[in-house]
């Protein structure tokens, strides 16, 4: 699908310089959704008016999801979690609200979550036991990756034989995987190398590529590596029998698509890494439920056929 022209993007307050084609499409899609809901913008078309967005939680699709957000973002469990305000409330493009809009209902319906994630994981997941958000065993803890890495969504489960496992899921939408904290993470390469060696799933000759993931040709790999390493070290420390790191993103996000291909080339054993598209996830949901929130999620986040050209 061609990118909408500049005049259409400007008409919907969705024009921003130096954006990739897919980012412009997704930005316009969120602007259209806001207009359809009759919600005023703050500055750009993808931003809800502040502070009303915090009071109404209009960024979220259902009452159930809003209850999850209130408890998660504003409740006592939020200590140590990296929710950014006002972004978590008013930014329609942010992947954090998207996580709640996709997994919030599933967190309250573990039977449905089990069906969908069993389908997505090709039977690896049999029974989901819990879903959490923005989760880490310990941010900055030297027992783990000794940095700020956390999973956007953390799913614990049992497999078909009753063994315990987890999925550490990184969710991307509009993001381009740029490494904005390069200097901070470069200081942790010794710890990263130790975990990578213990995991034993990386090509030795490709580790330098992961360490130098600030280079354009491997853009975005270091974040994937850090999440994968957190999965590996927590699987062992937490006493799990199985674990997998999952990148979840829209098919139109070509940056993620390329990063997945590049990252797979770094792996000698890919059993602990999966890449799923949001479109496939929604298709799986539709196999097991006809809930209105699924249609609304698809229309808001994925249906590019709604874009004016």
Query: Which structural class fits the helix and strand makeup?
Result: alpha/beta
Query: What is the count of structural domains?
Result: 1
Task: Tell me the number of strands.
Answer: 5
- Please list the strands of the largest sheet in the order they lie side by side: 1-2-3-4-5
Helical percent range? 40-55%
Query: What form results from the Cα inertia axes?
Result: globular
Strand residues, percent? 5-15%
Report a brief summary of the structure:
The protein is an alpha/beta fold and 309 residues long. The chain has helices at residues 6-11, 21-36, 52-56, 63-74, 87-90, 95-107, 110-120, 182-186, 189-199, 207-211, 221-237, 254-264, 278-288, 292-301; strands spanning 127-135, 151-158, 164-171, 242-249, 273-277. Helix 7 (110-120) crosses helix 13 (278-288).
Structure overview:
The protein is globular. Helix 12 links the parallel strand 4 (242-249) and strand 5 (273-277). The protein is an alpha/beta fold and 309 residues long. A five-stranded mixed β-sheet has the order 1-2-3-4-5, sandwiched between helices. Helix 7 crosses helix 13. It has one domain (6-306). It has 14 helices and five strands.
